[in-house]
Amino acid sequence: MLKAVATRARRAGLLCVLGVAFVVSPVVGHARNSPSTDGSLTPIALAELPPQGRATYALIREGGPFPYEKDATVFGNRERLLPAQQRGYYREYTVRTPGSRNRGARRIVCGGKQPRTPDACYYTSDHYASFRKIVE
Known about the structure:
By secondary structure, the chain is of the alpha+beta class. The chain has helices at residues 2-32, 51-62; strands spanning 43-45, 73-74, 90-94, 107-111, 120-124, 132-135. A six-stranded mixed beta sheet has the order 1-6-5-4-3-2, covered by helices on one side. Mean pLDDT is 81; it is low at 14-38.
């Protein structure tokens, strides 16, 4: 009887470890593999963004006003998933998440000298773990 209990406990422990591995591995791999092998990012059409993303993008092009204090602040690109640029090149904007009490995880990050006419914008739905280049 004691041997059967020990065997069940080992199996349960193994299943728990495997379960965590399956849950965590796609997230970790996704963050590392966000840029493609040629250095570009997977594109997303503006029309494919959620409605809140399209609204944020329109506000960026209009120059605001933005609903969150952190909007239009410098994005540091610490994750180094976006093309390397000088500090101050990228700015971040919140994409509202329905039902979220805070800013949520969705952002648009744009780069360029003119905020209303950025050189490129990127969408993240997972708080900077991955990015997709927005194409019009």
